[in-house]
Amino acid sequence: MPNVITDAKIFTCNQSRELSEKIAQAYGAPLGNVITSTYSDGEFQPSFEESVRGSRVFIIGSTHPGSDHLMELLLMLDAAKRASARHITAVIPYFGWARQDRKDKPRVPIAAKMIASILETAGATRIITMDLHADQIQGFFEKPVDHLYASTVFLPYLKSLNLDNLTIASPDMGGSKRAYAYSKALESDVVICYKQRAKANVISHMELIGDVTGKNVVLVDDMVDTAGTLTAAADLMMDRGAISVRAICTHPILSGKAYEKIENSKLQELIVTDSIPLKQESRKIRVVSCADLFAEVMQRVHQNRSISSKFIM
């Protein structure tokens, strides 16, 4: 008897509802009905209000802090597993806790590995995510991981700017691979910032490797948290003779005084995706949606079609 591909069902965690609505619209299917009950002490319980037995289920939720975002995704995965869903795909536009991907000093956790194990235990049979902090995090999972690149949505926007003397920049040594990939696609030069940290989120020293005189610079990074590195790099490059400095950051965490730093910096523009909802608007922040990218990949996964074209940065 031939395999029949039935319709997939798409559900969302509360923290990613706006993006999920866009993904569902682009996919061509409605969001499934989920009700979340909350106890007086803050404990909550999601409930699928429709059958998922034998279905392919996509559950969309970024896992940025606070920890309730991760917990909600885990509870929904467990509920789908216990409701006998056939395939349970966790669609995680931003995979949080990914900066803890190794032991950089004694007696610390490898949180990214722990989260990967918990997601699989909760019921995820596949993971779809975008711009992991480190590519090797894919190896923390025993289930298939589709690691997408936001360059798919960023490159068309960059090309539309028609910038002369374009130079791609990495704000740190760790992002050099990403910067080189963008420079290859745009046929541009590359410069790299070298930074030293006094502690997490605090830069003690920064130097520039390369020449930006007379260049329109685009900084590329996977996330922007406090915006300290990004704004320091932008100010340094303008001081070294750059014509303009823009930044592309996939995940807009934007904690602490990040919005204030961006507004007061020499950054002309910060381009981000909607993997994480913005806390407030800013005249310098432009959002490019990743909804179409996720919708297309979800369709291809459900139809057992290749998605290799989306792995090319």
Task: Explain what you see.
The structure is a single chain. By secondary structure, this protein is an alpha/beta fold. It has 8 helices and 14 strands. The chain has helices spanning 17-27, 67-82, 111-122, 151-161, 176-186, 228-239, 258-264, 291-302; strands spanning 9-12, 34-38, 44-48, 56-60, 87-92, 126-130, 145-148, 166-170, 189-199, 202-209, 216-224, 244-252, 269-273, 285-288. Strand 9 (189-199) and strand 10 (202-209) form a beta hairpin. Helix 2 (67-82) runs parallel beside helix 3 (111-122). The protein is globular, with a radius of gyration of 20 Å. Helices cover 29% and strands 27% of the residues. It has 2 domains: 9-148, Rossmann fold (3-Layer(aba) Sandwich), CATH 3.40.50.2020; 151-289, Rossmann fold, CATH 3.40.50.2020. Strands 10-9-8-11-12-13-14 form a 7-stranded mixed β-sheet, sandwiched between helices. Strands 1-4-5-6-7 form a 5-stranded parallel β-sheet, sandwiched between helices. The protein has a two-stranded antiparallel ribbon with strand order 2-3.
How many strands, what sense, and barrel or not for the largest sheet?
Answer: 7 strands, mixed
Q: If you consult CATH, what is the topology of the largest domain?
A: Rossmann fold
The count of DSSP E runs of length 2 or more, i.e. the number of strands, is 14
Order of strands, widest sheet = 10-9-8-11-12-13-14
- Large-scale geometry: globular
Our count of helices gives: 8
How much strand content do the residues show? 25-35%
Gross CATH architecture of the largest domain: 3-Layer(aba) Sandwich
Cα-based radius of gyration, to the nearest Å:
20 Å
**CATH class wording of the largest domain:** Alpha Beta
Mean pLDDT equals: 93
Q: Which spans have pLDDT < 50 for at least 5 consecutive residues?
A: none
* Helicity level: 25-40%
The tally of domains stands at 2
Structural class: alpha/beta
Give helix and strand order, one letter per element, not per position.
Answer: EHEEEHEHEEHEHEEEHEHEEH
Distance between the termini: 40 Å
Protein name: ribose-phosphate diphosphokinase
Keywords: ATP-binding, Cytoplasm, Kinase, Magnesium, Metal-binding, Nucleotide biosynthesis, Nucleotide-binding, Transferase
EC number: 2.7.6.1
GO molecular function: ATP binding; kinase activity; magnesium ion binding; ribose phosphate diphosphokinase activity
